[in-house]
Amino acid sequence: MSTPDPQEPVKPTVLQPGEGGPKPRTASGVDRTDVGAPAPKRERKFWDIALSIVLMLLSIGAYLTGALIGLLGIAVFGNCPTGTCGGETVTTTGLVLLGITILGIAATIFLLWLRLRGWWLAAVLLGTIIIAWIISYALSAFGR
User: Considering only Cβ atoms within 10 Å of each terminal Cβ, which end of the chain, N or C, has fewer?
Assistant: First the structure.
């Protein structure tokens, strides 16, 4: 073997694509020759989109129904002689639920835009609205 001359510059080896060299690997060691390529898009499920829309519309309906019942309750029982009316409880609940409804619908639409399942978030939103109104009316009925 001869030793390389220190005065002579070292020429880099240029490899053309597909000629060898180390292959890109993921952290788990799987060969990935498509690193940097966009991930394949998930397919949209019609039933998920339809169910999400139906649940979001039901959520809006539940919110509006609860708000209407609360407004009618305040209008009819607005001045309670016994002091057991909880109009401020219903009003506060209505404002908080308005924010939750808007955020829940926006988050569900965002999940659908990302091609992820969104029906579960819309179902949680509907359940939250119904349970919150029930708790609010129970608290206002007992004067809290």
Answer: N
